[in-house]
Design brief:
alpha+beta, 3 domains, seven-stranded mixed β-sheet, 8 helices
Length: 446
């Protein structure tokens, strides 16, 4: 037997789920108070067993989450390899929970466990990070199951009920700590299991392939917590969408196509809104503004009259610190390279807590955590949102920060860009750099 066939036999022994098997789960995230439990997020998970071109078993999945934040649709669907202990990060199923103005990714365990061969009475094993203990046998919905307790160095944090014959997860009960020690309970339970006909499976597989290709064309890293598409990406989806909607009719995936359609409409409105702001502001005098630098010194538009200025509005917070960090590393590099030209860069930490004197200290602590990590060379200021509002806060249109504003030596806005620049690592902030160089040339009369 050759190596490929040996590998395939291992996968099949670890996963014995027929292609076309549908699994549907319902779940919730509950905040555990001292005397109460309050649901803060509900979600559903759909998974379909399929077979890859090389014969490997896979799960095509989609998560629908409701309440307290959530991923964009590209991060709510994916293909999960089965029979492999290590799951690629981009394929992992996750929720996104908003808590006290911050977003926290929460991983969801695969519906098919990768340790079916260990589900014997009283067995114990470790995967290097967690200890697993089969504590008892149970019958759930007429299925023979076992209960598995999962512990870390902080104690027990998961209870799993698994069907022994298939490795299907019947239920999950997980203790989750979010933020500064707030305790939550993540629960998930299998609601239904069906088997598609060969015809319906083939139809679903066609749609899955189309969605996978569409997903790949967006070049998402899986870490973006806000869905912000470029005009080119929106146009590409609009071109693909009619066929996707037609092919998905009569399948579960029609729901996903509908979600994509709704998002495209939102994205189009956002792009049109931002284009309107650019038309309104570019070429016009900047609004007058005043800020306080982190060293306590004031700075205003009048103080910087005659200079080329970059204002970078972003939430400079140390927790959670997620790539690409508002691209501030690239901005710091640009400033180091161009500061000899006399430009001024001010990073503006937008945090509504600065409007409340009792919360200012907490806002400053969070900012210091980031600044100590990044060690930025350009000036930093704080804003409770009032200065950002003078530049027409793009968040009102659904556009995320950062906001990049370049003001020329004559005090007029020459550049207004929302979100992350599409860049190549070797080029850095090339688009922004070109704008700055052009502004400096005009300042020098060239």
């Amino acid at each position: 037997m050759n190596i490929a066939l040996i590998g395939l036999s291992v996968w099949l022994s670890a996963v014995d789920l027929p292609a076309g098997t549908e699994l549907q789960y319902a779940g919730a995230l509950n905040h555990q108070a001292k005397c109460d439990s309050n649901e803060v997020k509900a979600f559903s998970l759909y998974a379909l067993a399929i077979t890859a071109e090389d014969g490997r078993p896979q799960l095509a999945w989609y998560v629908d989450e409701r309440g307290a934040g959530g991923w964009g649709w590209p991060e709510r669907l994916g293909i999960l390899p089965l029979g492999e202990a290590a799951i690629p990060k981009y394929a992992a199923m996750r929720l996104l929970y908003s808590h006290e103005g911050q977003r926290f990714p929460l991983f969801v365990r695969s519906p098919i466990v990768d340790f079916r061969d260990k589900l014997t009475p009283q067995s114990t094993w470790t995967d290097g990070r967690h200890q697993y203990n089969v504590t008892r046998q149970r019958k759930v919905k007429d299925r023979e199951c076992v209960q598995v307790e999962v512990s870390s160095n902080l104690g027990r944090y998961q209870t799993l009920v698994i069907e022994t014959a298939t490795g299907i997860l019947m239920s999950l009960d997980e203790r989750v700590i979010i933020g500064r020690g707030d305790e939550y309970q993540l629960k998930m339970e299998l609601q239904s299991q069906n088997r598609l006909s060969d015809t319906d499976l083939a139809k679903s597989k066609t749609v899955i392939d189309s969605m996978t290709a569409l997903h790949a064309s967006l070049e998402r890293t899986g870490e973006q917590q806000v869905l912000e598409l470029t005009p080119e990406q929106v146009a590409s989806i609009q071109k693909t969408l009619p066929k996707l909607e037609h092919d998905s009719e009569g399948t579960f995936w029609s729901r996903v196509a509908a979600a994509i359609s709704r998002d495209v409409q939102i994205q189009q409105k956002r792009l049109e809104g931002i284009a309107g702001l650019q038309k309104k502001l570019i070429g016009q005098p900047q609004p007058e503004w005043k800020l306080k630098l982190t060293d306590g010194m004031p700075v205003s538009s009048q103080d910087l009259s005659g200079k080329v200025i970059i204002l970078h509005f972003w939430q400079y917070r140390g927790e959670p610190l997620n790539e690409p960090y508002g691209q501030i590393g690239y901005l710091d590099f640009l400033y180091s390279k161009r500061k000899k030209l006399g430009i001024r860069v001010i990073g503006v930490n937008v945090d509504e807590r600065y409007a409340n004197p009792q919360q200012t200290a907490a806002a400053n602590r969070s900012m210091r955590g980031l600044l100590e990590f990044m060690r930025l060379s350009y000036d930093m200021a704080t804003d409770n949102g009032s200065v950002l509002a003078e530049f027409d806060d793009p968040r009102s249109l659904g556009a995320p920060l950062p906001l990049w504003v370049v003001v020329g030596h004559d005090g007029k806005v020459v550049h207004y860009h929302t979100g992350i620049y599409d860049i190549k690592p070797d080029d850095g902030l090339k688009e922004l750099d070109e704008v700055v160089i052009d502004a400096v040339r005009r300042q020098n009369g060239k």
